[in-house]
Amino acid sequence: MERELTFRIVLERPPAGVDFGLQKGRGSIYEVMQKQRSANGDLSFVFTAGVKDSSKDAPPNVIGSFTQGPPGERFVYIDIGSCAGQTDSAWSRRLKVPLSGITWSMIDRVAGNPREVLETRVAGTGRDGGPTCGTVKPFHGWQVRKMAR
What we know:
Layout: E1 2-12, E2 19-26, E3 29-37, E4 43-52, E5 61-63, E6 67-68, E7 75-81, E8 92-98, H1 104-110, E9 116-123, E10 134-135, E11 143-146
Parallel strand pairs: 1-9, 8-10
Antiparallel strand pairs: 1-4, 2-3, 2-7, 4-5, 6-7, 7-8, 9-11
C-alpha cells in the first residue's frame, strides 16, 4: 500500500530576478513546475509524493515524479535560472533538497490529512551572493506544519 504526503519547500530570500522551479521527472526528460521569479521575499513550492508502507524498522521510501535518487537517499531538485527555463539568466544551477529525516510518526500524522504538510526551509542565497545550489548544507530537516489556506 502507498500513502500520499504533501510537502512544502520554502526557499528563504533568494536573490531577486532569478527564476526557480520544482523539477518533475528525471535525467534530461523533465518539466519545470511552479516556476516563480524571485523578488524580495520567500518562494514556496508544494508537491505530493507517495511513501511505500514497509517495515517500520526500515526508513521511509518516498517515491513519485518529483523525487530523485536511490531509496534511502531520495531528494528533490529546485531548478534555477537557465535550468528553470530563464534564457537570459546568468545562473544555471540546481538545488538538491534531501528527503532525509522523515520519520514514520511524521508520515502517520501527515498522510491523508489535508491540513498538515511536511515543510523544510532552506536558504535561497549562497555564500557567493547568487542562488544557493548543490546539496542543502546544513540541512535542518523536515517538520510537520499546518497547510496555509
